[in-house]
């Protein structure tokens, strides 16, 4: 996925996150359901940002950024920030 595709995915995930939070505040969604879905959205966002960093690192190294692959959720969530 190229940068444009990654940013499109990020924007969609952020919109979903805002929608979930608004629905919860309005009492339209079960808190457990919202929490589970939010966790998934956050993990997906972490993967997207990681993919952008991987693409940049390959480009900086003179390699093809299209060779970058998304890391598994477990790997991305294990990073120390």
UniProtKB/TrEMBL annotation:
This is DUF2630 domain-containing protein. It comes from Pseudofrankia asymbiotica.
